[in-house]
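Interim report, section 4.2 (structural modelling).
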Amino acid sequence: MTPTRKKRLVVVGLLVLGVSTATAIALVALNDNIRFSIGPSEIVAGDFPEGRQLRLGGLVAAGSVSRDPGSLAVGFKVTDCIHEVPVTFNGILPDLFREGQGVIAHGLLDETGLFHAHEVLARHDETYMPPEVERAMALAGSGLVCGEPLEDHLATVRGSTR
Amino acid sequence: MIWKTIKVGFHRLGSAPSFYRFSTVVSPWLWAGFALCSVIGVYYALYVVPPDYQQSDSFRILYVHVPSAWQAMAGYVVMSILAAIALIWRIRLTEIMAMMCAPIGAAFTAICLATGSIWGRPMWGTWWEWDARLTSMLVLLFIYLGIMGLYAAFDDKRKGARVACILVLVGLVNIPIIHFSVEWWTTLHQGKTIRIFGESSMHYSMMPPLIWMTIGVKLMFGAALLDRARNELLTQDRRKGWVRKILSNKGD
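Predicted structure of the assembly:
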């Protein structure tokens, strides 16, 4: 390699290194603003900007969904398996909404601890499998439940499908 | 000895007429491979693979969305390697190849964003949210478009390519951000399904079309890159002897 090319190689290396370092520092500084949603435990701990719109993320607690028969109003609890936050919403829920499903509610927390959502989004996990595999798992009682670590759940899924 | 043969081979390929000949022979084979892989992949994706337990038939869009997303990112890595070689060694062909990666990568990024949006509407309940994964992918599209614009803004194509190659290396930082965005921050987008090391969270019966489509898309990228680079070379050298010779032969 000629000296000129060696010099250019160093410059290219420094360019990539410099840009990466600057971006890494900026992203670490912005960390709190980049997180898309916060969990019930953070709400309970008070780790959220007060009086501002929030995105509350977690699972719909089992047995917590109550619908108003006369309107679109629905109440449910969002849980992270440690704490629960009650949510009220008046509108159309996504198709995937059900108990145990991951959701993100966008709205405001009032002083009584009730979360008024104006938008509810469904989150789905990264697992893809045929329905009969899922049914076999449900029969074996291996659906994901609170308290069961995700790794154990995935190990059961794999055990019952192979 | 072997090293010398490879080196000489690369130097030969670096000359415009031999690249013209090489790409004319190779690219139809890559296009044929792409056609074959994608026909098999689409057939498997639509007719063979079972529906998903949660998303039913909607998840089938994954077989377009995921290979395009991977190629949008892999294409950028290829472009960055070519750009680094172009900046250090000043090889004209690598400058052209690096620049020709940008429109193809931009197209794959656009496909990824469009299919993701169409998928997100019924499943998540929204066309678009500003979460880290979606936003960093949109930034990738703008970087690609910026590289294309910068290259096009110069009358001196070699100078334009060198300036744009610097932008390519600056934008490289976005690739690990896209990849790790779902791990570093909470996002609406789910975590990664396919792992190279360790087990994937996709049932094995759903894997074949993903593999076919991924290989197909890679072949298509190669084919489009060779075709674009060949056309760019012909346009730039249109007044040079070797192009005139080809044209006069074609005219006979």
